[in-house]
Amino acid sequence: MAKITFYGAARQVTGSCYLIETEHHRLLLECGMRQGEDEDEIEPGAPLLPFDPQTIDAVILSHAHLDHTGLAPLLVRRGYRGPLYMTATTCQLLPIMHKDSAFLLMKDVEWSNKRRQRAGKPPLEPLYTLNDVERELTLCEGLHYGEKREILPGVELCFRDAGHILGSGIVELWFDGRKLVFSGDLGNSHSPLLEDPSLIESADILLMESTYGDRNHRSNEETLREFREALDKAVEDGGNVLIPAFAVGRTQDLLYHLGQMYQEGRLKQNQVFLDSPMGTSVSEVYEKNTRLFNDDNPRFRKMMTHTWEQWLSVLRFTRRTEESMALNRIDSGAIIIAGSGMCTGGRIRHHLKHNLWKRKTHVLIVGYQAFGTLGRKLVDGAKRVRILGEEIAVKATIHTLGGFSAHAGQDQLMAWAKAFHKPRPRLFLVHGEPGSMQVLQKRLSHELHWDAAMPEEGETHEI
Ligand code: ZN
């Protein structure tokens, strides 16, 4: 009998990590990092991986986001030498994301160690380094959508398009005569760039994400109208627009929408900055993979075979630190897109520090904000926040535009789940906060007479 242990993203939305033990093999599905509360704190080797990495036979990663892959370099640092399976496009994105992650971890530790040295404390080690990432990258193996591969004797793997970010996959896994499906993160069918999530019809066991299990997104038209109104209001108020965005996915969706407005002559700002080296590199990967885009806007597809600037000519990429710092001198008329998406790190913190206290500033929150993050505090209406060790008054207008989410809303989750043939698979809800899971669980039970388990962290189930 096989079993599965839920080590992460169990009743929460970060740190995806599930260990599947079949009769002969140990497979790790996802190796995600948790998005924590304290931006300055590095967890110094705590039990982040509560199993021996050397006993794992293969790792499967659904998509490049760090909350699904961010601890894979640590796994390698602690002795894992087996293959890491992912889609071919995730293979292109992973080096960008993990090198950036290692760089930030190393920089943070260097900073903490200076303080520790002054306090007479021993230095900390970074969670992982660029060397660990280099080693990890030699272990990556990419599969195309729909390509079924035997990854271990008696274990087969296939990815389907999840439509969440470029290269995101729904995982189909066969072992011991059974089939497990993991939804990964399911895309929002309003995505301007990507296909809708593939429908799967059969499985014995299903792990489904439930981030938005309790609500639907606003309609696309409504969201775009709100987006335009917020941008126009910022021009009226004479301030800048700050958009914290995830470098992979949300950023490119925003560039699409801004380009569309620009093409229609409706964009009043005369400068758009993508202030994210990682976002810039990722946007280049998007440029190289236009074949994976949906067919909704052939003109965009055609222009994107050149560059993003062709689509949005007021766009500037600010890779270097000096270029980023120079943005602090722009007082109005600019849109600045910067990471991180939940404001827990990255350049957005500097821009927030320089602009949040001004009434004329507009901040657009376009993605999910996990509990405890700076982004969530802004959404919840905090009057003062701590950023980079300084207390900052929040005078800016904060707009929350839920419709841009890269996750499926409740109805979309229901529709996706409903495609499974009867008898329906045994269902585990993952990757959701308890409140939202419970709402989805009730709906599944009432409408489809389908029971869903909501495993706790560390819980093991026989499958
Ligand atoms: Zn994701």
Characterization of the model:
With 463 residues, this protein is of the alpha/beta class. It is 32% helix and 21% strand. The strands form four sheets. It has a seven-stranded mixed sheet with strand order 6-5-4-3-2-1-22. It has a seven-stranded mixed sheet with strand order 7-8-9-10-11-20-21. Strands 14-13-15-12-16-19 form a six-stranded parallel sheet, sandwiched between helices. Helix 3 packs antiparallel against helix 4 and helix 3 packs antiparallel against helix 7 (277-288). The longest helix is centred in the first third of the chain and has 31 residues, at 88-118. The model is unreliable at 37-46 (pLDDT under 50). Zinc ion (ZN) binds at residues 63, 65, 68, 164, 185.
- Describe the main β-sheet briefly: 7 strands, mixed
| Mean of pLDDT | 93
User: Into which percentage range does the β-strand content fall?
Assistant: 15-25%
Largest beta sheet: what is the strand line-up? 6-5-4-3-2-1-22
Detail the poorly predicted runs: 37-46
Helix content: 25-40%
DSSP strand count? 22
Distance between the termini: 7 Å
Indicate the structural class.
alpha/beta
How many H/I helical runs?
Answer: 14
Gyration radius, rounded: 22 Å
